[in-house]
Amino acid sequence: MRAIATLRSPSRAKHVDKFMRGVLWVIALGFILVLAVFVGAILHQGWPILRLDFLTRMPETLEAGGGIKPQIFNSIYLVLLSLGLSLPIGLGAGVYMAEYAGKGRTLNFFRLCIETLAATPSIVLALFGMIVFVQTLGWSFSIRSGALTLALLNIPVITRVTEVSLMSVPRELKEASYGLGATKLQTILKVALPYAATGILTGLVLTAGRAFGESAILVFTAGTNTSAIFPDFRLTVPGETLSVHLWYVTSDGTLPDAREIAAGTAAVMILVLLILNLSVRFLDRAIRRRTR
Asked: CA-CA distance, 38 to 58, in Å (whole number)?
């Protein structure tokens, strides 16, 4: 009887394995279908609105036919500024936690702080930015207020992604570097960071996409207006982004073509996010080929 049971168990395991593969394939295909329907519905409504004049005209406050030119600029500008502020801090903190902090209370304390900041709702960060930057410092609704608050949103994600990516570096590579006489800093810069570059880059693009689609923080810090000058690189002017413009147009209701503008704005945001994700795939492949 035992011999028969042992003969049957591999066959049963194969059936269970095939069944679980099928379940996972169904879940994956279901997710792809939901994503395709979601993206397709938005692009179906917004694609007819994506004309050149819509992308290159200034917005209107009361009349139909306005564009989103300054909102596109402000969205990209704010994302770049926030990443420029948060990337050095997040990258440095991730390197410290992965390579220098060691195991113990210090590392646990830093992880607790990072995870708490990462779990903080964006509306709480928005209120913090409004109280500190807009009111206390007197910066009003401006691009610098929005960029600094967005940086607070980005730092924990970049830190955690950097730490996890560095922890995945094989120990043998580091030991080989030490065996060749390299210092710890040289090993981190020449071996660990290049090996973990794909993971860090993926996390960076996800962070940029999250910041690009953020609205609550920017409503309270960057404002719902744009500068009359284009392009305006001043940090003291309001900086309404695409996500804020989408919220404002749908909630205000004064524009006669508010529905069309909202559909076109949403389509632009989806296309930008798709371009970001596709670009990180190409960069990932290029980095992998270079590091082989």
From this structure: 28
Task: Compute the half-sphere exposure of residue 285: CA atoms within 13 Å on the CB side of its CA.
Answer: 5
Sign of CA dihedral 252, 254, 259, 264: negative
Label residue 7 by pLDDT band (50, 70, 90): very low
Give the pLDDT confidence score for residue 100 in this predicted structure: 87
Q: What is the dihedral of CA 191, 193, 194, 195, to 10 degrees?
A: 80
Q: How far is residue 68's CA from residue 66's CA, in Å, rounded to a whole number?
A: 7
Q: Which amino acid is at 235?
A: L
pLDDT at site 50: 87
DSSP letter at 47? G
Residue (of 140, 130, 169) closest to 237 by Cα position:
140
The amino acid at 185: L
CA dihedral of residues 219, 220, 226, 231 (deg, nearest 10)? -100
The angle that helices 197-212 and 143-167 make with each other, rounded to 10 degrees, is 150
Give me the pLDDT at residue 1, please: 46
Contacts of residue 107, defined as CB under 8 A and 6 or more positions apart, other chains included, come to 97, 101
Mean pLDDT, range 19-32, rounded to an integer: 91
Cα gap 147→143, rounded to integer Å: 6
The structural domains of the chain, with segments of one domain joined by +, span 15-49, 52-291
Q: Provide the CATH topology of domain 52-291.
A: MetI-like fold (1.10.3720)
Helix H segments across the chain?
Answer: 2-46, 52-56, 69-95, 105-119, 122-129, 143-167, 171-179, 184-187, 193-195, 197-212, 216-221, 242-252, 258-291
Residue 58 is classified by DSSP as P
Cα of 203 vs its chain's centroid, Å:
7
pTM (predicted TM-score): 0.86
CA dihedral 18, 21, 26, 28 (to 10 degrees): -170
